[in-house]
Amino acid sequence: MLARRFKFDDSAVSPVVGVILMVAITVLLAATAATFFLDFGSGNLGENAPQAAFSFEYESGSPDSLTIEHRSGDSVQAGNLYITVSGASSDNGQHDFTSLGGAPAAGSDITAGSRVTFSRSSLDLSDATVTLNWEPSDSDKSIQLASWEAP
Fold this sequence. Notes:
With about 150 residues, the chain is α+β, with helices and mostly antiparallel strands. It has a domain at about 50-145: Immunoglobulin-like, CATH 2.60.40.10. It is about 25% helix and about 30% strand. It has helices at about 1-5, 15-40, and strands at about 50-60, 65-75, 75, 80-85, 95, 110, 115-120, 130-135, 145-150. The chain is elongated, with a radius of gyration of 28 Å. It comes from Haloarcula vallismortis ATCC 29715.
C-alpha cells in the first residue's frame, strides 16, 4: 500500500520544474539585456567599412610589381587605406596607400576603375602576402578589405 501511495504522489515535481524554468528565463533575459546595452557602449558607432571589391595583378621581375585595382563598390578615401606586406624578402611592414607610386592624394576618393601599382626596388613578392586594410579616420581599428597571396 505504501508503494502505491508514492507511485502516484508527484506533488514535488511541479514546483521544482517551475523554479528551474524561472531561473532559466531570468538568466536568458539578463544575458539579452547585457548584450544589448554593452554593445552600444563599445564605440562601434563610427564609420561603416566600405563595401568594395579589389583585384590584384602580379608581375614577377626586377623589381616585382603588384597592381591593385578597385573593381566595384563604394568609393574609398585614399588616406584611409593601408597596405600590409608580410613574407616578402625585404621591405616588410605597413605602407600608407598614398605613398605608393601613382596613388591619388590622401583626401581624394578611389572609385571603381582606379589602379595603383605597388613596386619597390629589391622587393621579392614571390612568397608574400599583401593585405589592403581600411582604417576609419575616427578610430584606430582597421578592417581588411582584400588580400593577395603569392602564387
